[in-house]
Specification:
Uridine Diphospho-n-acetylenolpyruvylglucosamine Reductase, domain 2; 20 strands; about 300 residues; five-stranded antiparallel beta sheet; Uridine Diphospho-n-acetylenolpyruvylglucosamine Reductase, domain 1; globular
Length: about 300
């Protein structure tokens, strides 16, 4: 008999045969067998324990802003952290759960006169996802602010890691593949709200002018090679505007692949592979993806 999970076991929303298109910013993917939105870290732990007990595969998602999900769908359970949004504001520190929207946090911090998160005003992911991949923009990274991270390890045990115990580098961290992030402590510095809000306004306008926000996308597809721009290389190689099926290299920013309406994961992967091969052929540079691809 198929194992059952219900609100009798845990608190949160549970859906069966749920479209992955609703769980990622590319709006791509088949259906998930099960999707679970826990309302607390305790419920997340219970859901994870249920999956382990019943040998059900698990995938943890935030807002799905830098991932490509498969056309074939996902067997097992997708656990979405978007309801984990408890937050505590201290004098200079913020204790915030993994599912909190990063862009919202940046704007609230500016309102409160806390400086340091302005760079994140246009990043569409969650705090947990941002810390996991060391998200950044405008010359700043989330790792600059991290002081502690509360995590769940592969054995199901909760631990608190200090900043010194975590290795951060460009768009990655030592947390990836080892932990699920539950909560983070970020430290900011006092600032003038009017100045911070103006900085956010400028960053927002720059993003609007430079990125194809009118189409579903997953942000920058490729990491920048050292001292180079992936977008500039892709544009120089002539890829702007080129399409495969419903996927298109943005004419606005060559490091963005947009969904023009009916793009599939295969369309996007075909474009990514073709661009990667072409850039290596023309420039001898091997581009690495910033987006995480699930197959």
């Amino acid at each position: 008999m198929e194992p059952q999970i219900s609100e009798r076991n845990v608190r949160g929303k549970i859906e069966r045969d749920f479209s992955l298109k609703k769980l990622n910013t590319w709006h791509i993917g088949g259906n998930a067998e099960l999707v679970f939105w826990p309302v607390s870290c305790e419920d997340l732990l219970k859901g994870r324990s249920w999956c382990q007990k019943n040998k059900v595969k698990m995938l943890l998602l935030g807002r799905g802003s830098n991932i490509l999900l498969p056309d074939e769908g996902i067997k097992g359970m997708v656990i979405v952290t978007s309801m984990l949004k408890n937050i505590t504001w201290q004098e200079k520190r913020i204790m915030v759960e993994a599912g909190y929207p990063l862009s919202q946090l940046a704007r609230q911090a500016a309102d409160k006169g806390l400086e340091g998160l302005e760079f994140a005003c246009g990043i569409p992911g969650t705090v947990g996802g941002a810390v996991m991949v060391n998200a950044g923009a405008h010359g700043a990274e989330i790792s600059d602010l991290v002081r502690q991270v509360r995590v769940l390890d592969q054995k199901g045990e909760i631990m608190t890691l200090d900043r010194e115990q975590i290795e951060f580098s460009y768009r990655t961290s030592s947390l990836q593949g080892k932990y699920w992030i539950l909560e983070c402590v970020l430290e900011l510095v006092p600032g003038e709200p009017a100045v911070l809000k103006e900085k956010i306004r400028v960053f927002t306008e720059q993003r609007k002018n430079a990125q194809p926000l009118e189409y579903p996308n997953a942000g920058s597809v490729f990491r920048n090679p050292p001292h180079l721009s992936a977008g500039a290389l892709i544009e120089q190689a002539g890829w702007k505007g080129k399409t495969v099926g419903g996927a298109q290299v943005s004419a606005k920013h060559a490091n963005f692949i947009i969904n023009t309406g009916k793009a599939t994961a295969l369309d996007v992967k075909t474009l990514i592979n073709a661009i990667t091969e072409d850039i290596e052929d023309k420039f001898g540079i091997q581009l690495k993806t910033e987006v995480q691809i699930f197959s």
